[in-house]
Design brief:
By secondary structure, this protein is mainly beta. It is 11% helix and 32% strand. It has one domain: Metallo-dependent phosphatases (Purple Acid Phosphatase, chain A, domain 2, 4-Layer Sandwich).
Amino acid sequence: MKAMIISDSHGWRDELRTVIDRHREEVDLVVHCGDSELDGAAPELEGVRTVKGNCDFGGDFPEERVDEAGGVRFFTGHGHLLNVKMSSLQLKYKGQENEADIVCYGHSHVPETFEEEGLVFINPGSIRLPRGPVDFGTYALAEVSEAEVKVEFFSFEGETVPQLSRTFPRR
């Protein structure tokens, strides 16, 4: 099973479509972690599982969601209501409460992935307004097998970012 995780595109339409279309045929699930600044009818988000971020002002998206693909359970929340800039504790609790395998979030614009108590956490960063260890836009692909979860980060242009990418044993 393979999923694409993207976040914080902040109004970009053509660019968002370009990035999603680049991988759409190879993934089973596309998740947008909020702050798309688009509405639910936006063609760029067709088939994309999207949550509401702090810059999404309509009522088109839920605050959080749970999705399954290929037997893998994803919890997604933007993060502003879960204090992700302070700690991962609320994210962990939400992931556990929803029996998730992978927890996806955004808000900080900082790309990162880590594992804690069997949960894999993925913040894909922002394709438009990057912050953190790299100065370019990023998104992530997560490939889940019986043995492992491989999280690979990409630049907006589609180049792999090995210094951010990691592989975790599946528990």
